Amino acid sequence: MRLSAHDLWFGYDDRPILDGVEFSASTGEAVAIVGPSGVGKTTLLSLLGGMQRPRTGRVEVDGDSAVGRQVSWVLQTVNVLANRSVLDNVALGPLVDGRSRREALAIAKRRLREVGLDALADAPARKVSGGELQRVVIARALASNRPFLLADEPTGQLDRVTTDQIVECLLLARAERGLIVVTHDPAVAARCDRRYELVDGLLREPEVAS
Ligand SMILES: Nc1ncnc2c1ncn2[C@@H]1O[C@H](COP(=O)(O)OP(=O)(O)OP(=O)(O)O)[C@@H](O)[C@H]1O
């Protein structure tokens, strides 16, 4: 499947942020969006995932403009139910997709194993560290059946070891879906298959990551 954006224009008040952006990502690949702080990366991601609408232009997944149903999110503000277990939080992904509780728990257990957190399945989310919580949110996104995973600064201020763990978890998405990640961290961008740079409202041609 292919998520594509054509001629996106967007601004806050009269200030243009995106000025004719072209973008595409396919399932099976990881694409990074980089660029200076405040240039509009989070805004672009919100348009790519259908959270906001462009003033002009369009975003589609295989020709379908209802992109919100095709994406799962890993956002800067980690949103989890603090008093529920790690497993219950991950199971929310498939539950929202309409799976039965039994199916959702089975999928959640598998995804927690993949991100290396099965030992924490029964712990309340409030008791796990920031880096672990980020992996919980990734497991929840992987547990949903949406074809694209969108991540906004998923490694934030975390240390290098934790960052590497999180990137490994995110790249699991490539097995079945597409990953689109906004990041400041050149090491994270370098792990992706392609990189776009947002400058002056436009995305520069993608480079092949070295
Ligand atoms: N809801 C809003 N209303 C008005 N201006 C906004 C709003 N959201 C963001 N902006 C402004 O739009 C610009 C782009 O913001 P955005 O968060 O998309 O940038 P960014 O590249 O993701 O930044 P960072 O890397 O610092 O997270 C910034 O100048 C920001 O202050």
Automatic annotation (TrEMBL):
It comes from the Bacteria. Pfam families: ABC_tran. Keywords: ATP-binding, Lipoprotein, Nucleotide-binding. InterPro entries: AAA+_ATPase (IPR003593), ABC_transporter-like_ATP-bd (IPR003439), ABC_transporter-like_CS (IPR017871), ABC_transpr_LolD-like (IPR015854), P-loop_NTPase (IPR027417). The keyword Nucleotide-binding applies. One of its GO terms (molecular function) is ATP hydrolysis activity. Gene3D superfamilies: P-loop containing nucleotide triphosphate hydrolases. GO terms for cellular component: plasma membrane. Residues 3-208 form the ABC transporter domain. Belongs to the ABC transporter superfamily. This is Putative ABC transport system ATP-binding protein/lipoprotein-releasing system ATP-binding protein. It comes from Propionicimonas paludicola.
